[in-house]
Amino acid sequence: MKSIHFFVLTLAMLCACQPSKQSNLYTVTGELDDSTHHGKKIYIMRLDDNKYIDSTFVEGKQFVFRGKVDTASYCRVDVSYSDFSILILERGDIKVNLKEHISPSGTSLNDELRRICQEEDSILKYVRQKQEEIRKQYSDDIEAREAMKKFMNEVKANLLARCKGIYNLHNNDVVGYSQVHSYSMRWLDTNTQLQIMSTFGPWLKSQKSVQATIKRLEALNKTSEGMPFIDIKGVDADGNPVALSDYIGKGNYVLLDMWASWCGPCKGEIPYLLKLHNQYKGKGLTVLGLFVWDKKENLKKAVEEEGIVWPQIVNVEGMEVTDSYGVDGIPHIILFAPDGTILKRDLRGQGMIDTVAEVMKKN
After folding, report:
1. Does pLDDT of 28 surpass 70?
2. Which helix (H) or strand (E) holds 300?
């Protein structure tokens, strides 16, 4: 009798110690404002590799995903352009908010993600309000820039402390993954971001997006202000071979504009570039276009429509711009010194005109 009792007790303890076969089940539920999308098939997409990992149909104004998950992952559900949600797919009952977009709830990791994102939203709101107050407070541009610089240095110091606090708790999980591209991280300088990422655990470092981010930051370091240019080859508007080295390091300042025909903000910079081209052409400055992330055949039409009169280099294949200069968005405009040294990066609008004018005064 004792042996039977011991066997039953041991079996009960083993069952208690082993995870239930049902413990990896999840549900993801969401609700829409109306039944416009009734019957539509929707998906959960894992963001690290853009792979669809589950699907369901909208029923009336609601949808429910049900499945099993072994490892938590950072995902997205899209119903329409405006109705979507970011979530952490993990075991448990998850509810997504399609209007607030990053406000999932119901499980520990999703509750933590929502808390962190809401906190960051509050920080961004405060920063924007304070920036507007500074602009209104100072009529002198120089004083305004100095006040803004001081304020942003304080903000970045606080964001650094915040990021370190988050990664003390989440340096090897999906919550940490979610913060790699957060505003808090992106406002920090590249060296600081790399230092934080050096503390990541093996799972987090193995994620494709994290590896790509580290590679981009390392490229930014290699092409930061004061570093020599890295050559990129391509063709000109007529298809002839040409490279950055045909212009940069040849005795002129070079203002390099990385752009594409589909990019609205790129087109917004063209009047400023034209003004600089007209003012300093033949006086020591060359404006140069680098046509990227587009189709070669789109260049001619875009040049004609936008009134672009400076030379162009076409490099539309692959990710050489990203790999060489760490660029993850366009327009991206860089000013090079006559010897090929990088003077300024990410120039835009009136600030670009002021920077170039100041440099050319010393020429």
Report:
1. yes
2. helix 298-306
